[in-house]
Amino acid sequence: MQKLAAIFALDIAAYAVMSNHYHVVLYIDAKAARTWSDTEVIFRWQELFKASNLSGCLSGLQ
Questions:
Q1: What is the pLDDT of residue 1?
Q2: Which residue in 2, 6, 8, 48 is a FRET match for 14, CA 20 to 30 A apart?
Q3: What is the pLDDT of residues 4-54, one digit of tens each?
Q4: Phi and psi for 14 in degrees, rounded to 5?
Q5: What is the pLDDT of residue 13?
Q6: Cβ-count burial of 7 within 10 angstroms (0-12 exposed, 13-18 middle, 19+ buried)?
Q7: Exposed/middle/buried for 15, CB within 10 Å: 0-12, 13-18, 19+?
Q8: Which helix H or strand E contains 28, and what residues bound it?
Q9: For the whole model, what pTM was predicted?
Q10: CB–CB of 57/42 below 8 Å?
Q11: What span, in angstroms and rounded, lies between the C-alpha atoms of 35 and 12?
């Protein structure tokens, strides 16, 4: 969960782990997310889902 919070514009406000599921209360920082370019969104997404083909296409965009 902390990895997701570090990659995306969110904070974990609370969570509860149950025997067969969990609950998470998130704060989504929409103001911060709106400042990201499309390229930054893709690179952040790639921090979680490794997609080397996509990063090769975007190497000249940064």
A1: 80
A2: 48
A3: 888 899 999 999 999 999 999 999 999 999 999 988 988 888 888 876 656
A4: -165, 160
A5: 94
A6: middle
A7: exposed
A8: strand 22-28
A9: 0.60
A10: no
A11: 20
